Amino acid sequence: MNNPFAETVLSGSMLLAMPVALLAGLVSFLSPCVLPLVPGYLGYVSGLTGADLENQRRGRMFAGIGLFVLGFSVVFMLIGAVFGQLGAWLKGPDAAWVTQVLGVVVIILGVVFLGGMNWFQQEAKIHAKPPAGLWGAPVLGVTFGLGWAPCTGPTLGAVQALAFSDGSSAAKGALLTFVYCLGLGLPFLLIALGVRRGLGALVFFRTHRRGLQWFGGGMLIVLGLLMVTGVWGTWINELQFWFANEVRLPI
To answer: So which domain of life are we looking at (predicted)?
Structure first.
């Protein structure tokens, strides 16, 4: 009997979508909406002041960031599960048009990421602040996940479009969003493990933030064009054919 989890991960759609989701999460972390706030998040979720941050109390820092990442990951994965299940319900056997429409949406999200469409450049966040420290860290993560920012919203939206267009199941939607959360959350955790070095590395990315913004927006626009033109679907079909005929999973 084949391993169903391995079949899911290695299916054509996931083989293409998972690297995109991981990269989208990383782009979200490096975006102007998140990157400048990282030192503040580190102090807030751990309850440490500047002096303690310099002394690198890594255990408490890692725990706080881990709970923060867990908070927004739960929210995002629930959203991904909903989109995956909606795709399974609504996408029929001849629904290439769904992918094309979603491709147009992804192109628009790419334009938003680049700073276009002023209405979408407004942030929508929950302003109630949980208590600083470990107890408030997961709550802060949840409020982060429930908000809209013009840098993180478009990338997450593109991942949800992929989850919907795949139209397989809630589990696939949640898994794809989990990969996005890895791209967004792992840099937080790595910086928490090496505070001084990590914060120093952020200076480089802040200096090149405009280039990173263009890269992220361009990635979304290219993805949208691939979906609109049908190239994305063709690649998925070719990978699925390869997977069905060439890959042998463990029994």
So the answer is: Bacteria
Q: For residue 155, which of 22, 36, 61 has the smallest C-alpha distance?
A: 22
Q: What are phi and psi of 248, to 5 degrees?
A: -120, 115
- Alpha carbon 29 to chain centroid distance? 9
Q: Which residues contact 244 (CB under 8 A, 6 or more apart)?
A: none
Positive or negative torsion for Cα 32, 34, 39, 43: positive
Please state, in angstroms and as integers, the Cα–Cα distance from residue 176 to each residue in 8, 149, 157, 188, 204, following that order.
10, 20, 12, 19, 29
- Prediction pTM value: 0.83
Residue 203, CA atoms < 13 Å, CB-side half-sphere:
5
User: How far apart are alpha carbons 180 and 172 in whole angstroms?
Assistant: 13
SS3 215: helix
**Token pair 């319900």 is at which residue?**
89
Task: Give 124-178 pLDDT, tens digit per residue.
Answer: 666 667 777 788 888 888 988 887 777 788 899 999 888 887 766 788 888 899 9
Tracing tokens 């996005």 back to the chain, one arrives at 180
Residue 46 CB burial class (10 angstroms; 0-12, 13-18, ≥19): buried
